[in-house]
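Why do we care about 3D structure at all? Because function follows from shape, and shape follows, mostly, from sequence. That is the central idea of this module. The next example makes it concrete: a single protein chain, its amino acid sequence, and then its structure expressed as tokens.
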Amino acid sequence: MRWRIALTLGLLFSLALFFTAEGAENTEMASGGLLFDWTGEEQPLAQVRALGQLVLGGLRPQPQTRPDAPIRYSGVNPFGINTFLEQEVEPAKRERTLQMIRDAGFTWIRQPFPWQDIEIHGKGDFEDRRHTPYRSAWEKYDNIVDLAERYGLNIIARLDSPPAWSRADGEARGAFAPPDRFEDFGDFVYTIVSRYKGRVRYYQLWNEPNIYPEWGEQDVDPEAYTRLLCIGYRRAKQADPDVVILSGALAQTLELGGRNLSDLVFLQRMYNAGARDCFDILAMQGYGLWSGPTDHRLRPTAINYARHVYARDIMVQNGDAGKPIWLSEMNWNAAPEDVEPRYGRVTLEQQARYAPLAYERARREWPWIGVINFWYFKRPTEEWENERRPEAYFRMVLPDFTPLPVYEAMRAYTQSRPP
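And the structure:
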């Protein structure tokens, strides 16, 4: 029966292509409407190819997602955004950032609290002596928490980036390599959760442990990361039983070993190692890369915005359907023509259309998705732009606070969205 349905859909889509794009000649019409709504592609030939892939996808066993399952931490406001407030030297710029974020309708910030920037010089040492005058390493982060409260924003505190003292070989294995003693990380988690008890409830333990360089200059290790996660989880709950722990966001990748490991393989190995009892919310990345947010193709050998559906299937198969998935990073890259399109390339106008569509699709189709964090608000300087790094062009506003079209598009969407 499934193959008949799939073939019928393929025929219907082909007819739709003929009538809406005039045989793949009317590019303007092909960039919207039914075909874009199913393929996320804006060019006629790409839409034709995508239709064939949709048909083939319909012949495969479909992911089991249990959309009717009761899910904890669901029904939250989904509008989150990544910030780098710790890199803003001037408190006034931190405040302006949060003002603009609040005015655009966001209610969450995903903000790094780097271990190496807080417990800097040695275990239990929270004084910053890198510059004079010396000061408390907590000062900047206390200010961030104060400002978030002032503007009614929830913080997802991202905890990673171990200090060099936590490894006997310093930074020989890279600045992001895990500590020698995972208990040192657990102690840091306990300290920060205790400090902000009742003020910061959501903590994320690590970022992208399945890809280089986030696990250092070495092969990734799902079992080791799970041990780290479980130690951090237990210590966080000891400090505050009401705290909510997100797993480290798994990066979308198709590689199968060494320094990069498929997010789906990594996740199953986490479950095999006992991770089910060590996080409250599964975190995944949600980039669309080379197709738009409406791409309905599901292929384990390709990356698109809907890839997290496979992660949901893994959760269901491991008896974890009651937990949600939160997307730690989501966006499309608006790199100019002279910058390498490592993460795909869209125009500023497309970026402004795609971001609201991403939130809307999640609202309509995926009840297991909670907060979606746009990547990212701004960087404090133009360093990335000057280096022609494609990462610079995920921004929502320029370093001087000039809004890009996606800022206004998101503000309009959050204001119009039904409650």
